[in-house]
User: Fold these one by one.
Assistant:
Number 1:
Amino acid sequence: MRLRQIEVFYAIMSTGSLRRAAEVLHVSQPAASKVLRYAEQSLGFALFERTGGRLVPTREARIMLPHVNTIFEKISDLKRLTENLRYARNGHAISIGCVPSLGLSIVPRVIQGYHAKHPGNELTIDTLHGPEIVSRILNHDLDLGIVFGTYEQQGLTACHIADIPLVLIDKQRTEGPVALEDIDHARYIGLSENDPTARLLDMAWEDADHAAVPLVRVRTHYMAAELVRLGGGCAIVDGLTALHHPGLPVPLPLKPPLGMACTVLFRADHALSHISKDILALLQQEIKQDLASLPAV
C-alpha cells in the first residue's frame, strides 16, 4: 500500500465513513473512494463491505489496523522531531517535562525566574508522569525531564539534583517523627503502585513488617494531599507538595527518614544547552530554598 492509500484507510477507520474521511483529508469524496478502490485492488482483498450505504471494516482491515496505528504513531513522532529541530535551530528554545508535584510548586517559579531574565527565549512546559517523560525525551519531544526517583535507561543521562524528604500529613497528628507502623492503616491514602514513591514505601513497609493496604490509591502526591485537606485520611507525600499545598496540617517527618531523589533527565547523545544549564541551576536553588523552609524535617 502507498502512503496515501494508508491515509485514506486510516481516516475511514477513524471517522467511520468515507465522507468524513474525505473531509479530514481535505479531498473530495470521489477522490477518496478512488484511492480506496486502488488500495483494495493492489492488496487483492476488500477492506470494507458496503452495507446499506455504510462502510463496514472487514476482518482483514481490523487485523491491519494496529499496524497502521503504529505507522501513524511513528509519523507523529517524526513530525514532532522536525518541529523541534526547526524551532530550536537558533538555540533559544527548550521544552521541559516535569512530574505533577513539581509542576505545582517549584517548576513555575523556576520558569518565571528564568523568563524574567531571558524574555526572548521560548519555553514549553508539560506536566507528565515519569514514564511519559522518558518516552518523550527519547523521541526528541522534550529537552529536559524533571522526575522523582532514579531512571537508568539506555539513551538517557540522569543527573541527581536533590533528595526530597517524604512526610506524613495527617490532621489527627501534631507531633513527629512518626514510624510507619504507627500510621493508621484504616485511613491511609496511598499512591499508585507504578509511582516510584509507592515502590519505595512498599519496601519500607516490608522492612517494618507491616503491610499497608491503602484506603484509596491516587496517581499524584497533589491528589493525595487534597484528600487529606478534605478530611479523607492521612498520606505520605513529598515535602515540596506538603509545603505548597494550602490548608494542610503541618508535615511530620518519618522515622526512620525516607526521601526521594529528584532527578533531571536528558538524552545521553545531547550536551546540555546553556538554557538547560541555567534552568538546572535555578531549579537547584529553588529546591534548596524550599527544603530549608520545610518545618520539622
Number 2:
Amino acid sequence: MTSFPTFPSLRRRAVLGWAASATLAPAALQAQTKLPRLVTVGGAITECVYALGAEAQLVGTDTTSLYPLAAQNTPKVGYMRTLSAEGLLALKPDAVIGTTEAVPPVVMDQLRSAGVKVELIESDHSWAEVQRKLLAVGRGSGREAQARALQTKLDADWAATQQLVAQFKGRKPKVLFILSHTAAVQVAGEKTAADAMLRFIGAQNVMAGFNGYRAMTAEAMAAAAPDLILTTTQGIEAQGGIDKFWSRPELTLTPAFKTKALVQLDALELLGFGPRMPGTVRALHQRIVLA
C-alpha cells in the first residue's frame, strides 16, 4: 500500500526548502553582482583602494603606486604623465581614478569616449584632497559606505594631529626641502606638496617667497640658512647615499651641514597626500619640531 506524507512532514519540508533558499540567496546575489574593474593613477589613490579592501578590483595601477607592497605586483600602465589610452583600454576598466595635476587630459577624453568612467581629483595639497581621493575611490569601487566610515575615522585622527601641532608654542625650525631624484637638484617653494607638509608639521619653509621648485644654488643656501634638510629616501638613493648627498658644495654653507641635520622619508608617504597623512604629520612633527 502506498503511503503519502502527512501534512506536518510537508510543512517541515517547505520550511527547510525556504531556509535553504534564504541561505543561498546572498551568495547567488553576490555572484550576480559585478564589481567595477579599477585602474588607479597616483600612489595615494591606490592606497585608498587597499584601505577600503577593494584591491581585488584593481586591474592596473601607475608606476607611482608602490604602497602597500602588494601594489607593486599589480599590472602597470606606465608613469602617470605619459599614459596611453590604448594601454589603459586593454585592461578593460570600468573606471579610472586619477588626479588633475598628473593625468593627460586627451587620454582621459579618449577613455570617456570609450565608455569608461573617469574621475579626476583636484590636487591642492590640503586635507580636503585626501578626503576627495578616498570618497572618489569609494564611488568608483562601489564601496561608498565603507569610504564614509573610514573618512570619519581619518577626520578624527587628523583633527587630533592638528591640535597636537597647534599646542607647540616654541620656535619653528627652519627647514629646507630638497628634491633630488635626478641630477637636477631642486628646492621647494610655496604651492608645493612639500611646502604644505612643512606648514602642517609646524615648521618654517626657508624657501617661502616663490612658487614651485627652483634649482639649488650656493647663494640661496647661504641666504636661507636652514636648520634641517628634509628630503626623500628615493632622493638620497639617487644621489648615491647620505655621504654623497652631503658632499654637495651648496650644502656646506648651511647650519644644517654643521650638525648633518637630515630627515628622509619615502616620497609617496611624504608628498602623496593619502590615508597615512595624519600619522606622517604627527611623526614628522615629533622628529623635526619637538626634537
Number 3:
Amino acid sequence: MSRIAYVNGRYVPQREASVNVEDRGYQFGDGVYEVIHVHDGRFVDTGLHLARLARSLRELAIPKPMEDGALLVVLREVVRRNRIREGIVYMQVSRGVARRDHAFPRDVAPALVVTARHGKAFPREIDTWTGTAITAPDIRWGRVDIKTVNLLPNCLAKQKAREAGAYEAILIDRDGNVTEGSSTTVWAVDEDGVLRTRHLDHHILPGCTRAAVISLMEEAGIRFEERGLSEAELRAAREIFLTSATSYVKPMVRLDGVAVGEGTPGPVARRLFELFARHADGATHNVPPASPRLASCGGIG
C-alpha cells in the first residue's frame, strides 16, 4: 500500500508529495515540527504536543496553519489512510513560500506537511528495552527549547552514537554539564539515590514525555529534582534513562563503554516504565495541555 501524506491541503501518495523549492523550511530551516506516538490506534499525549507546537510557532512568529481541532482531523485522517495502529505521526510547519530573503516575508501562508509511519509495538518488558549511550559535546544553537527543523548538530551527534554502536549521544555543554540527548530527555539517579533531570531553560527541549512522566511521578508520590547534572555526576550515576515520544522510558545500561550501576535497568526506571506503559495503554489526554512543564522559557527578543 502506498503511503499517504498531507501537503498544504491535499492528501497525496507520499512518493508524489513535494514542496516548493522556495519553501523557507527547505532554504532556511525556518520551521518547526512535532512527532506524536500512535499506540493501539490512539494518539499519546496529544494535548502536550499540540501545546508545544503552538509555543514553537509563537516563538518564531509563524502563524498557525489551522486551529487544533482541524489539525487533529488531518492527523487522524493521515493515520487512518496509512492504517497505522502502532507508529508515529509527524507534522511540520514552515513559514511558507517566498522569494529567498533572510528577513521574514509578509502575508505568506504557513506550509503544513503531515506524514505517518508504522513502528514497533510498545515494549512490554523493560529488560528487552535497554540501550547504551556515549557522550558528545553540545554544539547546538542557543534556543533548542524551540522544536525547530534545524537538527544538523543533533544528527551529527546521533551519527556518532550509531558509529559507536550506541543508541544515543548524551550532550555535554562547554561548562561540563549534561543538557539532553540528541533526541531525548536525560534522567539519572545520582550516587546519593536522588532522581534528577535538568531544569527547563533555553538549552533543552521541554519534552512532552518528560512532562507526562513528571505528572505520573507526582501522582504516584515519587520524588525527583529538576536540577542539572555535571558530566562527573552522570558517570557516577546509579541509573541513567531516557524519555521521548519514541524512546518512552528507556534505560541506558552502559555509558561510553562503562556499565551504569549494575549494568541492568534499575528500580526507578522499572517503576517509571510501568507507569508510562499504563499511561500509554489507557490515556491520550491525561496530562493537561497547559502543563507548566511546557511553559515558555522566554521570548526570542
